[in-house]
Automatic annotation (TrEMBL):
Cleaved signal peptide residues: none
GFO/IDH/MocA-like oxidoreductase domain segment(s): 126-246
Coiled coil: none
InterPro entries for the chain: Gfo/Idh/MocA-like_OxRdtase_N, GFO_IDH_MocA-like_dom, NAD(P)-bd_dom_sf
Protein name in UniProt: Gfo/Idh/MocA family oxidoreductase
Superkingdom, taxonomy of origin: Bacteria
Domain Gfo/Idh/MocA-like oxidoreductase N-terminal: start-end pairs: 1-118
Record Pfam families: GFO_IDH_MocA, GFO_IDH_MocA_C3
Length: 332
């Protein structure tokens, strides 16, 4: 099969290398707003560069991977669906709810599968936690704790257009909580702080935030995020049940040191998401190419992305207005 890739920045370049290594993919064709960067990535990886997006769509593709900046996601997904091309798109599907719903409207009834890149659904730890919940061995779940802690903030020019910490970062936790528990979020209460670089306060964003989510069966989930966790990249999820508890992401690379007696992690901490979730990124793209080859259903359709986006939207409203927000308030 021939797979096109739009966007060869940090994550797009990684996807190009992964796709090149999948046996069923005979050719990878890449394009980028910076044509020179696309040519350089193509030269380095031994793949083909298209002159631009129009040339990419004219390249006889069997499927398209979208890894461009977020503002271009919705338009590319809709164009691919209209062309009958299965699509893999990095989260989020669009920059806002209106754009996300516009994509869903285009996808529904089209028969074209669209997979959203929530890679934690393919992480072995998150999948094992999901199975532990589904099997009943934890008993009934009373608390879930999930965190995403970045070592350093992203570039300052990115932050004002990122959508904010909940939409840009914690949305992964929101999807992971829903995926692992199999439950929906009904209400949130959230707070944030803008300490650190001035750009956070200037753009109305938060550099650290936490949210308490109430799930539809009464389970409580606590989600925390930070742009300043110099100890290392830290993504963990704990599921606490009436009989047993499990944790995802607790190993020799977890950037935590005991305050009292105990053992420090033996290995160096992860430096970022590409390293921490390398196995999951490969697994999700293998799932996508399998979907293209077999015409199978999407393992993470846009409807799932919308539900996580609703939670992020509710958390941002809660942070801004300092009150509990029901998901139904933001649902459309």
């Amino acid at each position: 099969m021939r797979i096109g890739l739009a966007g060869v920045g940090r994550i797009g370049g990684g996807h190009a290398e992964t796709l090149r290594g999948i046996a069923e993919v005979e050719e990878v064709v890449v394009a980028d707003a910076d044509a020179g960067r696309a040519r350089e990535v193509a030269r380095k990886l031994g793949v083909r560069a298209a002159a631009g997006v129009d040339a990419l769509f004219a390249a006889g593709l069997d499927g398209l991977v979208v890894a461009t900046p977020t503002a271009a996601h919705a338009g590319l997904v809709i164009r691919a669906v209209e062309a009958g091309l299965p699509v893999f798109v990095e989260k989020p599907v669009a920059t806002d709810l209106d754009g996300t719903i516009q994509v869903l409207t285009a996808v529904r009834g089209s028969g074209v599968p669209v997979q959203v890149g929530f890679q934690r659904r393919f992480d072995p730890g998150h999948r094992a936690a999901r199975e532990a919940v589904r099997s009943g061995r934890l008993g009934w779940v009373h608390t879930v704790r999930s965190c995403t802690l970045d070592p350093v903030p992203p570039p300052e020019e990115y932050l004002p257009t990122s959508g904010g910490l909940f939409r840009d970062c914690s949305v992964h936790d929101f999807d992971a909580v829903r995926f692992v528990t199999g439950r929906d979020v009904v209400e949130v209460t959230a707070a944030g702080a803008d300490r650190g670089a001035a750009v956070f306060a200037e753009s109305g964003d938060a550099s650290a935030a936490s949210a308490v989510l109430t799930l539809d069966d009464g389970t409580l989930a606590v989600v925390s995020a930070s742009r300043y966790n110099a100890a290392g990249y830290d993504v963990r999820l704990e599921v606490l049940g009436s009989r047993d508890s499990v944790v995802v992401g607790l190993d020799d690379r977890t950037p935590l040191s005991p305050a009292g007696p105990g053992t420090r992690p033996a290995g160096p901490p992860h430096t970022g998401f590409l390293e921490r979730f390398a196995e999951a990124y490969t697994a999700e793209l293998r799932a996508f190419t399998g979907m293209v080859a077999e015409g199978a259903a999407s393992p993470c359709p846009p409807e799932e992305s919308l539900e996580a986006f609703y939670v992020a939207e509710a958390c941002e409203t809660s942070r801004r207005e300092r009150r509990a927000v029901a998901i139904e308030e933001v649902r459309r």
